[in-house]
Amino acid sequence: MMRKAYQEELASIGDRLVEMANLVGSAIGRATTALLDTDLELAESVIAADAKVDDLQRDLENQAIAVLARQQPVATDLRIVVTSLRMSADLERCGDLAEHVAKLARMRYPEQAIPRDLRRTILEMGQLAQRLMAQAAEVVLTQDIDAALQVEKDDDRMDELHRMIFQHLMDDRWQHGVETAVDVTLVGRYYERFADHAVSVARRVVYLVTGERVDELITDRPA
Amino acid sequence: MMRKAYQEELASIGDRLVEMANLVGSAIGRATTALLDTDLELAESVIAADAKVDDLQRDLENQAIAVLARQQPVATDLRIVVTSLRMSADLERCGDLAEHVAKLARMRYPEQAIPRDLRRTILEMGQLAQRLMAQAAEVVLTQDIDAALQVEKDDDRMDELHRMIFQHLMDDRWQHGVETAVDVTLVGRYYERFADHAVSVARRVVYLVTGERVDELITDRPA
């Protein structure tokens, strides 16, 4: 009976993590749309919705502490609870980053923050960020190691896009002025950090399941 | 006996947190010097030293998990351990941010990354970041609530400096080109984030000790 209640509590923590991942994945997608379409209403809704993510994180933290106190898990179960706390911190931060993108859209409204020649790159970053988070959520749900390694691999594209933005900024033909350069620098960093946190969530699952860090796994495997 | 071993383990976790805070406080100070003096050797040493911070964080996490498993703390003691995990994540991130500053110094070497008219502001940001971290370490050690609220207050100056940088960047008279604007944007953000994490460490102590969030405390108090 104790055991069953405990498994239910663990499952409920997992559900909350997946719910957080879904929320922040949706938030980064909508923030990107708000930014590229100069949609003030959408930007405001993303900003307002972040409170829900913060609430979920607080709930999850309290729930994890309650599980630790009541069930006093050891070994793997204990690591699951502790790791969940770390993952919820990653996801909470992703919510903040989506909010930052939306706030930039709001700050520049009704102007376009992103110049025409970078819109495609920013769109791809936004979509990729959303996709990486959906993959991370799936990894939390399924504990599928190959899917987790795929998140890692797909994040390489984010780094590539981030480098492309910098090349563009450093190009002598940059004509959009310093204000836009600052905006693009920050927004590029928001997407890159968002993706890093999605990768981090997937990595933590790998470590939980295999006890090995991702670098070790990748080195061990045939290419 | 059990109780004594437990108190010792908690104290040792606290010592590790303070050690981490000291390391990252020193790192941000040295990274700032490396950046402003274009000192490549110093930059390299900051970059190399971050591995030590990462190791400490891993040790602290393992130690916290061991305490949870062996001692199965409840109530306040449990919150102390869980909060320590969160604080160690804040501090680990601060180490990364100091490393980012050092990497910028290295990337631009032997050029100056920071233009003359912003050096004073960046120096103040670096010194303030180091000071805020020293204060946060002291708060961890002493659990002094007033000192924690002071960290919060002193961080206002960081926000002010960060705004000054943006005003400078947006000024039509900016003559340092886009590359420098991008560097200054990122480095400004690194310091601001570093300070946020120092504030976060202090806030977590306040919450542990009083059970109240800082906002509530500040609202309750006479100005």
Notable traits:
Methane Monooxygenase Hydroxylase, Chain G, domain 1; 87% helix; 223 residues; homodimer; mainly alpha
Give the structure's gist in a few sentences.
Two copies of one chain form a homodimer. Chain A is mainly α.
Question: What report would you give on this structure?
Answer:
- Two copies of one chain form a homodimer.
- Chain A is mostly helical.
- Chain A has one domain (2-220): Up-down Bundle (Methane Monooxygenase Hydroxylase, Chain G, domain 1), CATH 1.20.58.
- Chain A is 87% helix and 0% strand.
- Chain A contains seven helices and no strands.
- In chain A, helix 1 runs parallel beside helix 3, helix 2 (40-71) runs antiparallel to helix 3 (75-108) and helix 4 (116-142) runs antiparallel to helix 5 (145-170).
- The first copy, chain A, is globular.
- The model of chain A has no long low-confidence stretch (mean pLDDT 93).
Write the layout of secondary structure elements.
The structure is a homodimer of 223-residue chains.
Chain A (H helix, E strand, L loop, with lengths): L1 H35 L3 H32 L3 H34 L7 H27 L2 H26 L6 H34 L3 H7 L3
Helix pairs in contact in A: 1-2, 1-3, 1-4, 2-3, 3-6, 4-5, 4-6, 5-6
How many domain units of chain A?
1
Oligomer: homodimer
CATH architectural type of chain A: Up-down Bundle
Helical residue percent of chain A?
over 70%
- From the alpha carbons, calculate the radius of gyration of chain A and give it in angstroms: 19 Å
| Major pleated sheet of chain A | none
Large-scale geometry of chain A: globular
Percent strand of chain A: under 5%
Specify the CATH class of chain A.
Mainly Alpha
Low-confidence stretches of chain A: none
Order of helices and strands of chain A: HHHHHHH
Instruction: Determine the CATH topology of chain A.
Output: Methane Monooxygenase Hydroxylase, Chain G, domain 1
Please work out how many helical segments of chain A DSSP would assign: 7
Number of strands of chain A: 0
